[in-house]
Amino acid sequence: MTVFQTGLPASATLKLQQCGNCAQVNYPARELCGYCLADALQWQPVKDTGTVQSITELQYSLEPGYTAHLPWRVASIQLDCGPQALTHLVPGVVTGDAVRLKVIQDGQGNVMLLALGCDHAVQQAAIHWLEEVQFKEISA
Ligand SMILES: [Zn+2]
Known about the structure:
It is a single chain. A five-stranded mixed β-barrel has the order 4-5-6-8-7. Strands 2-1-3 form a three-stranded antiparallel sheet, with no helix packed on it. The protein has two helices and nine strands, in the order ββββαββββαβ. It folds into two domains: 15-44, no CATH class; 47-135, CATH 2.40.50. The two termini are 25 Å apart. By secondary structure, it is mostly beta strands. 24% of the residues are buried. Zinc ion is lined by residues 19, 21-22, 24, 33, 35-36, 38.
């Protein structure tokens, strides 16, 4: 079992580090602002929408929780609040689609980002997929 250190707070709403000096949103987690180097980053709720820039399908995994669900899709998302993020990706979403990001925990308790499609049919398919892969949305 591998523990992934994303630094994300386990929160029902997407929270990323925002700079108290220049107001830019930073991701991934860091100690100093990537724009102005101020030591003033605080976890703040941010807009959870974005656009899929690219998708990669993993054909192999060393993690037992993922091997049964290959190929596994990950995506680069341009967030509307500023930064880009690498996320897990539900089936049915393609490059250029609008997505919403959720903070989820995998079956091993790792806190990470998941991109969900905005289309109703894609959302319905994602509900079954989330159960199948044992990803849990964080409710607190
Ligand atoms: Zn800054």
